Amino acid sequence: MSTYSCDRGQAEAVKGKSVAHPGWTIAATMLASSLAFIDGSVTNVALPAIGKELGGDASSLPWVINSYLLPLSALLLLGGAAGDHFGRKRALILGIILFALASVGCAFAPDLTSLFLARAAQGVGAAILMPNSLGILGSSFEGEARGRAVGTWAAAGAIASAVGPPLGGWLVDSVGWRAIFYLNIPVATAAIIVAWHYVEESAQGRGRLDWMGALLATVTLGTLTRALTLWSSRHAASFDTWAGLGGGIMLLVLFLIVEHRLGDRAMMPLALFASRPFVGLTLLTLLLYGALGGLLVLLPYLLIVGGQYSPTQAGLALLPFSIVIGTVSRRAGRLAERIGPRWPLSIGPIVTGAGFALMVRADPNASYWTSILPGMAVVALGMAGAVAPLTTAVLSSVDDRHTGTASGFNSATARTGGLVATAIAGAAIAVPRADLTGAFQAAAIVAAVLAVAAGVIAFLTLAKSS
């Protein structure tokens, strides 16, 4: 939901030139990226309606989200490299077209399998358009103009993420869940028209693309996610679960071997991990965004199924989270510039963990203002203190050659955390309605532990002056 802050460093890391149509260029990138931001948050409130119409259960419903997150997580770096190689404008328009066509496929999906395939195509489109929307900003602006452009892009992402749940809930209530995918068509059409006419092409034409690394990353994440989903939905580890985990680990080792042999030509250069702060920031991102991703999937489900909220009400229940993030994160970023990211990245996740601990009091049948809002507000406050300093810390944790790749990898790690959390969330979705509140509260305890661990990792791995 707030991973836009992890992405903004990709644009800031690229040196560029002035642009003929600055306003239209920013508009094109904002329209394109809003597709991914809205779709990343709007689907959560539609899960119960989708499950009711298409017959989803605890082992299949998480894949409505994960079939989108999987290719987005695995292919984000490759999508950026493709833009560098073939041209960022071409890649941006291609990604938008693919996303729009996949959205039509989602809207017309007759069953869950068709929906999963269309959602996966959406994820591929998002993996292409997201890094290239930032790459275009980085190659089109310089100095303070670039900072303003990226800030505008990030603010638009925050707004899109905030609008997504209540708008999606209203559409589910008034039209039906398929309408949330029709919403993408006019936005995509406008983005294509503006990009085609006003965005200048920027192509590097450098190197070969790491297709093998991208394939192995996708298959590895898919195998591990499927195994975790099976385990969580059945509340037991079957032979399929162990086989999937074993196969996923073997594929991960193979992926690392391939990336090591490719060196700096790899999609994920292993030289990045020679930096202790970068390793710590990667673990922090995985744990913190994993905890957050689980909350954003389970809370709407709890409110709708356990508390009889309408999808609109459930979407509005999430709105305070985005409001706090949007108003506080910029101030936290300025504070981190003065004192360094170590303390914000240590305290922010710990405050987030305290918010998750408060969510143990969550009861969908009690007052929202006393049982849900306090914990959510504290979670949002802690996240707001962490998201902006995280970008600065990632960029400063590696040498100049790897800043763009490091920021892109951090963004992919954030989405992978959400991917894993959604897979495990099936354990709560699988319980009977009467037990759903208890399952959510148990998940909140796990999220609290993960968030606090993220803060401790930041304190131990970041230098005092970093």
Mean pLDDT: 81
CATH topology of the largest domain: Growth Hormone, Chain: A
The helix/strand order is HHHHHHHHHHHHHHHHHHHH
What form results from the Cα inertia axes?
A: globular
Give the C-alpha Rg.
21 Å
Polypeptide structure, described:
The chain is mainly alpha-helical. The chain folds into three domains: 1-209, Up-down Bundle (Growth Hormone, Chain: A); 211-266; 275-466, Up-down Bundle (Growth Hormone, Chain: A). The chain has helices at residues 4-12, 22-42, 47-54, 62-86, 88-107, 112-140, 143-174, 179-182, 184-198, 211-234, 239-262, 276-306, 311-317, 319-339, 342-358, 368-371, 373-396, 403-424, 426-429, 436-461. Helix 15 (342-358) packs antiparallel against helix 20 (436-461). The two termini are 27 Å apart.
Could you write a compact summary of the structure shown?
By secondary structure, this protein is mainly alpha-helical. The chain has helices at residues 4-12, 22-42, 47-54, 62-86, 88-107, 112-140, 143-174, 179-182, 184-198, 211-234, 239-262, 276-306, 311-317, 319-339, 342-358, 368-371, 373-396, 403-424, 426-429, 436-461.
